[in-house]
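Weekly puzzle thread! Below is a chain. First person to post its structure in token form gets bragging rights.
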Amino acid sequence: MAGFLKDREKQIFTKGGNSQSLVGGKPSLAGSVSQRACVFCGSRVVLYPIADALHLVHGPIGCASYTWDIRGAMSSGPELHRSSFSTDLREKHVIFGGEKQLYQALHELIDKYHPKAAFVYSTCIVGVIGDDVQSVCKRVAKEKDIPVIAVMAEGFQGSKKDGYKIACDAMASLIGTDNSKEISTMSINILGDFNLAGELWMLTEYYKRMGIQILASITGDGRVKDIQNAHRASLNVVQCSGSMMHLAKTMQEQYGIPFMKVSYFGIEDMSDALYEVAKFFKSEETMDRARDLVKDELTTLLPTLEPYKVALQGKKAAIYVGGAFKAISLVKALRLIGVKTVIAGTQTGNTEDYKLLEAICDDGCILVDDSNPVELSEFVKQTGADLFIGGVKERPIAYKLGIGFCDHNHERKLALAGYEGMLNFAKEVYETVSSPVWQFVKRSF
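Winning reply:
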């Protein structure tokens, strides 16, 4: 396959056909038109679901519109995060500076909406003109008596993954600043679940049935006070390792809180997540509750999945998502319903992640790091995939090639985590691949 840039050879791997390992975590190659987003976008999507905080983008209006409502993150209460605020910097601010504009905007918005905290996102143009965002934030925090946090996320610093780290540092400045919340002896923080389509509420119910309290969800359905108290939890459970591992390691260093990486997608990983948390608390009662929960869920779910498995037998899927753990879970979930993964790629995976991904994929599967539209199109043609699973940027690729598409990114409105989510996933894959529309579409390969 010659449809890739030569300098990217080490980031493309065919299981059973290459001797070298795939190298992940490299900066995007100039000219590759990467599917990755910018640093600002990465920080914004991580912090956005904190529902009772003000989110103000200090930059041109386009930056705010680009990331507005970008996650399908639901809230059980306030919805201040659903509004996109911007200082709307223009040419005159580039010349004379935008600090006065930022100061006035913060005062006006805090007085009107009374947020529990405010996050101020610095964009590319602010990094160029040199506004002292941190100084303005400190001044307003003192005047308004709420945390006002500068998120120094100028987009040109790197990629979305760098924005994750900056967002984690912003949250770390909140953690440990309050001790008023009542906590259980068995309490956890969930890091990296963004409550897409209400998935966090399903997970909360599972843990409640086990007798475990979720002290803070960082950041899905997030609340400032919960995050301020997060240092008091017994364990951090990291769902999206790409976005939250930096925060988990920071909290371990500062507060001694251990962490474990889990996935809530697919039957196997969902069950393992419950068992591993129960094992951590060394309680037989908690473990028995976890076993009963899994047994009850699978007794209903497995027979329901069987017809989908029969109908989908022999179908092939391409996966290109943000994080490696999501890709690993998707490979397992697809296998459970009879679908073979022929392409597996991520935007933020590292070399160790790809070793895990390689181990569970079949021979002939193409693994790719930080891909681009040309590569992905060529891989789909080469493998004859029937389905593409990805995000909003991959949707046009699938439809132009004449194959089905399933959204598994942060814009989706369908719950795919947990046992209920596994059934939703099977239904979506079946309905997409089996849609009668494909008889009228001529594949371009």
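Puzzle host: Confirmed. Bonus trivia for everyone else. The CA atoms of residues 309 and 374 lie 31 Å apart.
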